[in-house]
Amino acid sequence: MRNHATATPRGWALPGIANLHSHAFQRAMAGMAERQTDPRDSFWTWRETMYAMAARFDPGLLQAVAAQLYVEMLEAGYTTVCEFHYLHHAADGTPHAQPDAMSQALLRAARETGIRITLLPVLYMTGGFDGRALSERQRRFGHRVDAYLRLHETLRANAGDTVRIGCALHSLRAVPAAAMGEVLAGLPADARIHIHVAEQTAEVDECVAVRGARPVQWLLDNAAVDARWTLVHATHLDAAEVQGIARSGATVAICTTTEANLGDGLFPLRSFLDAGGRWGIGSDSHISVSPVEELRWLEYGQRLHARRRNIASSADSPSVGAALLQGVLGSAADSSGFAADDRIVLDAQAPILAGASADDLIDRWIFSGNASLVRDVVVAGVRVVEDGRHRDREAIAARYREAMRQLLS
After folding, report:
1. CA nearest to 385, candidates 171, 113, 122
2. Using CA atoms, how far apart are residues 138 and 144, in angstroms rounded to an integer?
3. How many helices (H) and strands (E) does the chain have?
């Protein structure tokens, strides 16, 4: 396995990390859903808190929050973000005068911070597998197929060196089968396609009851799933689904900290690796914005479940850290659409890296503490982080503080 660590005059250089799953607006509610609302609190009760926050956003507030988030991502070592975007309309479901106003807010945030973005406008049509209408709180997410395809076509004019436009199907429960087929037929052949799938056991049970198959199996049987696809979460899989995803070439986006925060469950990492499956990481709800924490707790969750150590290692890579880094690097281009050569530089003078070598550098970065070791970040040839600080950190933070004042007032 390739050793990606290179010594440079400014420190240890590594490739930049792709964040495969982001809901930028949720950064504004991080830490605000940690009080019991029901004795059986779960994803489904958390979702009501999320809806209440989502209802407060307009394009200006979304840009301010997203820019702050993207600064945090860059300073942590993420150089690409796949933004799974469903805040399309005003809170009551009325389209904005400029139908892509919320999407453009995210693109402006990405451009001003310098992060690469794969914008994934979301198709969201129904409130469940039974086809029920969207609830009042979901109306701002909704599109008909024709309006969605028009939005997608409009946004494609924004694609460029640091911008890609892909497609997100919110989930099988939110996109009827016929609509999914119509949208897929209307997309460019190279469009990246992301979908939430099998995050919750209730979702799996409802899919079996209504469609007669588990969600991942239904998707594999009813769509041409290939390397362009990213299955977000895919937490609850049986053995046949593990093998099926691996054969398809699709990527699974594992969002370890969010899945833990919501009590979703553990992805079957070792069996997926054994099947040759491809995977990456996402920070999703952004209760943490750190590739180190996503990777560390991906491994630690598996250790707690298996009650043994070094789960992600293999004969080819006895180093757990190197195996984890190889996983996220190997899926990034297919999932995001970017074949990028961005880099991050770790501070070789950090005490925690004293005496580090290329052989142990990645393990020490991931498994030796919480202080950020990222010194520099270069995206598309531009140094956007230097000595640990984003070039526009203070101005963007000031706008974020004002946005939070408005959101919470």
Report:
1. 113
2. 14
3. 14, 15
Give Cα 180 to chain centroid, integer Å.
21
Distance in angstroms (rounded) separating the CA atoms of residues 160 and 156: 9
- DSSP calls for 88-128: -S-TTSPPPSSTTHHHHHHHHHHHHHT-EEEEEEEE---SS
The Cα–Cα gap between 198 and 205 comes to 10
CB 109 within 8 A of CB 323: no
Give the residues across from 345 on adjacent strands: 13, 376
Q: For the segment 287-301, what is each residue's pLDDT rounded down to a tens digit?
A: 999 999 999 999 999
DSSP-assigned letter for residue 304? H
Q: Look up residue 357 and give its two tokens.
A: 């070598």
Which pLDDT tens digit goes with each residue over 131-184? 999 999 999 999 999 999 999 999 999 999 999 999 999 999 999 999 999 999
Q: Which residues are catalytic?
A: 233, 284
In terms of C-beta density within 10 A (0-12 exposed, 13-18 middle, 19 or more buried), how is residue 242 classed? buried
- The mean pLDDT value of the chain amounts to 96
Per residue in 273-327, pLDDT tens? Answer: 999 999 999 999 999 999 999 999 999 999 999 999 999 999 888 999 999 999 9
Q: Read off the pLDDT band of 340 (50, 70, 90).
A: confident
Strand partners, 84: 120
pLDDT at 40: 87
Q: Read off the pLDDT of residues 225-263 as tens digits, 9 standing for 90 and up.
A: 999 999 999 999 999 999 999 999 999 999 999 999 999
3-state DSSP call for residue 65? helix
| CB-CB neighbours of 174 under 10 Å | 23
SS3 375: strand
Domain 6-408 listed as CATH 3.40.250.10: no
Q: Are 35 and 267 in contact (CB under 8 A)?
A: no
**CA–CA dist 89, 166 (Å, integer):** 19
3-state SS, residue 345? strand
DSSP label at residue 28: G
